[in-house]
Amino acid sequence: MTTNHITSLHIRSVPVLDQDEALDFYTTHLGFEVRDDIDLGFMRWLTVGVPGQDTSILLELVGAPVHDEATAAQVRELVAKGALGGVFLLSDDVHATYAALRDAGVEITQEPVEQPYGTDFGIRDPFGNPVRISQPNAATPAEVQGAYDAVAAER
Amino acid sequence: MGRPLSAQEDTNRRMLRARDEMDRRYADPLDVPTLAALAHLSVSQFGRVFKEVYGETPHRYLQRRRVERAMTLLRQTDRPVTDVAWDVGFASLGTFSRTFSNVVGCSPTEFRARHSPVAVPSCFIAAWTRPREKQTAPPQTAQTEKREEVGAG
């Protein structure tokens, strides 16, 4: 039994290179809503989330106050080459989501693929962060593992 | 966009688009002219800049992606190794086996054998899940426990 009193995953940070562009992408294309948009003086606290769901993501501008300029330059370069981050989203109609994003010109990294756990596809946000969108099936983790093992077991 | 990308960020972003294209078409022959065009570079610049950004040549990256896909197919399907090699884009079994061994550290056949689920004898499962009468059993020691395990299978 845990005794640390943590009750939920509340906010996850995603590094972005421009907060206005990030806000447009995550609201316009992914349907997120703005949770907080607060000028703290030393930074803009900008969080968005899926309507009806509690967890938010912080669209965190790479740079001060978190990073010194040399570190920020390194992080920005890592974001731009796709080496950081990662957001995993669920859809109740993954093919419709895919078609809408494709038609809107969003960068698709992988078309929808059937997997033992459901169907998913990949996109990138404007800065290079990977976003994976899935429509899970009803399989339990054990059943998913079983599907991965099944063919091998027949050999 | 508020802050313009630095030259290196812009280069990285363009190379990422090219690398994503390689990921999408991993089974196709390496198409440097198309990738270079995606990255807004000349054919002669592309390989050098890709290596500067990702630390390996486009050819090596593509080989690793193909091997990664082959690992999945070897584990999840019963397709012959030769077919797997073709499926992921290798034109010869020899090149596939050599590349696979270089990347993974074992041959495709060895990899498949190592990653098959372990077949546990049913008698072991029965012994493992059988309730124990601790009050009547003799005192357990590491040695007797080990003997039971060995004898159960």
UniProtKB/TrEMBL annotation, chain A:
<dbReference type="InterPro" id="IPR037523">
    <property type="entry name" value="VOC_core"/>
</dbReference>
<feature type="domain" description="VOC">
    <location>
        <begin position="7"/>
        <end position="136"/>
    </location>
</feature>
<dbReference type="InterPro" id="IPR029068">
    <property type="entry name" value="Glyas_Bleomycin-R_OHBP_Dase"/>
</dbReference>
<protein>
    <submittedName>
        <fullName>VOC family protein</fullName>
    </submittedName>
</protein>
<dbReference type="Pfam" id="PF00903">
    <property type="entry name" value="Glyoxalase"/>
</dbReference>
<dbReference type="InterPro" id="IPR004360">
    <property type="entry name" value="Glyas_Fos-R_dOase_dom"/>
</dbReference>
UniProtKB/TrEMBL annotation, chain B:
<dbReference type="InterPro" id="IPR009057">
    <property type="entry name" value="Homeodomain-like_sf"/>
</dbReference>
<protein>
    <submittedName>
        <fullName>AraC family transcriptional regulator</fullName>
    </submittedName>
</protein>
<keyword id="KW-0238">DNA-binding</keyword>
<dbReference type="InterPro" id="IPR020449">
    <property type="entry name" value="Tscrpt_reg_AraC-type_HTH"/>
</dbReference>
<feature type="domain" description="HTH araC/xylS-type">
    <location>
        <begin position="16"/>
        <end position="114"/>
    </location>
</feature>
<dbReference type="Pfam" id="PF12833">
    <property type="entry name" value="HTH_18"/>
</dbReference>
<feature type="compositionally biased region" description="Basic and acidic residues">
    <location>
        <begin position="144"/>
        <end position="153"/>
    </location>
</feature>
<dbReference type="InterPro" id="IPR018060">
    <property type="entry name" value="HTH_AraC"/>
</dbReference>
<dbReference type="InterPro" id="IPR018062">
    <property type="entry name" value="HTH_AraC-typ_CS"/>
</dbReference>
<feature type="region of interest" description="Disordered">
    <location>
        <begin position="131"/>
        <end position="153"/>
    </location>
</feature>
<keyword id="KW-0804">Transcription</keyword>
<dbReference type="InterPro" id="IPR050204">
    <property type="entry name" value="AraC_XylS_family_regulators"/>
</dbReference>
<keyword id="KW-0805">Transcription regulation</keyword>
